[in-house]
Predict the structure.
Amino acid sequence: MRNSDAFIVIAKKEYADAVKNVLFLTLVSFLLGLVGISLLVAAFNFQSQVAQYNQALEQIKQSGLTGAMLEEPQYYPLQMLRGTVEYLEIIGAIIGIILGYLAIAKEKGANTARLLLSRPLGGVSFVGGKIFGNSLLILSVLGIIFLFIIVSISGIGHVLFSQLELLKLFLAFLFSFIYLVFFFCFAMLLTLFFRSMPHALIVAFSVWLVFVLIIPQIGDTMDPDNQVPGGFFNSMHMTQDQQKRVIAKFKRYENFRNAMEESSVEKHYERLVFATLGIKDMYNDKGLSFIFKDKWGDLVWVIGYCIMGAILSFALFKNGRLLNSP
Amino acid sequence: MPVIKINGLGHRYGNQAALNNLNLIVLEGEIFGFLGHNGAGKTTTINILTTLLTQTSGTAEVAGFNTISQSRQVRQNIGYLPENVMFYDNLTAFENLAFFAKLSGVTDIEEKIFEVLDFLDFRGIENKKMGEFSKGMRQRIGIAQAIIHKPKVLFLDEPTSGLDPMGIKNLREIIIRLNKEKNMTIFMNTHLLSEVALTCTSIGVLSRGHLIYNDTLENTLKKFPSEASLEDIYEHVEKTAKKIK
């Protein structure tokens, strides 16, 4: 049998297994529910902002003044995706971990690994097939969310996306895909590495807790700009240059805070996606070249983590790691 | 013609030796019974021959291929039924067999599955979930997955373990038919001497990692005319081996 055939057979089975898995379906439903609620709230909020503006405009016109006196506000519909990105950061990572764990645990735990490994398939087909099948699954989940976003924002918020916005949305989902695949690979390599599967799951969730929840939270809390709602620098009406000059005075503190955030793949992902979608105000109205020039480091980190996870999964594949008994 | 050639095979788990300088030849068409107590090294030997485990010393060839350098070719030519075979319980018997058949490169899957189920006299169960199967039924599906790609050599690790007397009888008949009708060489680990006497054409006895006896069943029975049963022969061989040591 050719390697590619075995690769496809394994990948197809991974996909089919996951869509029948109650835990996976529950988590996906949970994620979709939360994303749905956040989108609906954001879309209604957006709709009401537009309605408020239109109402004000109408009142001005009725009072005999010209509409031009009321400056047309700038709306950034992609900013509505803040909640979606945050849910993907947290629950998406859990889905990746669960999929990665199950991909190996189901063979190791049930001892079907013996039957699999006695077939003419190599480690590349085995690990590659599992990564590919689960990546397709992650892509499907993100695809559903992607469609849901477009339908809800354009349907409820009555927003027509520009081509650039659609491209930014697509890129944000590409980065989300890479981020989720990293967590899949990470959990898979841990389940391959540890003889005891519960240990693998505990370590995976400990890392998730520290690097997805705790460190980014500490980093955010330590961020001087987050000390005042709406942003400290914003409320002080400081320009970008002024902000940089102030931060330069606290260089050591800022370096420490930054180093902490740099250690978290989640923070790199968040910075990248927040910039791409313009959730961070300074990236609104900016082209992709500006965003990537500023955020290429985060992009490299996210892709690097993912590639490293996949390489280590291949490297750790050994028959002995899958067989429970000698 | 030798189908399995083992030369100076050794394996250690840490400091503990599981196999010591094992030399063995199994000829084509044989049903070889590999006897020994629990922990004697039988499963380690099968694991090495099926390429699941890499030996720490010596060489092994199966169907003319080296188990290390040509492991893929070895796996193309073998079928394997592990002790306590497990399947994907959420899938049907057909889906399980189709999955393993595809991985073995079988093309006409449906035809081959029904052919194998007919051979095992097991038609009608294909749409049942594996989770609903009894131990004996699983063992039959285990045989089915092991022979669906028509391997040259079939490895059975304690195949009768956990089966009721009727299940043991059925399995015995299947093993003999596979050997006679499908021309498969069979390498069977067991500690049940009664099974060896009724099924095998040659035997090897393994004790604490050492092969202490190897001959055809016919010669064995001739060599020990005074021994009443195979159990007595086994006891005799083990005692002799201990004395030599």
About this structure: The first helix of chain A runs from residue 3 to 19. Chain A touches chain B through 26 residues (CB under 8 Å). Residues 3-322 of chain A form one domain. Chain A has a mean pLDDT of 88.
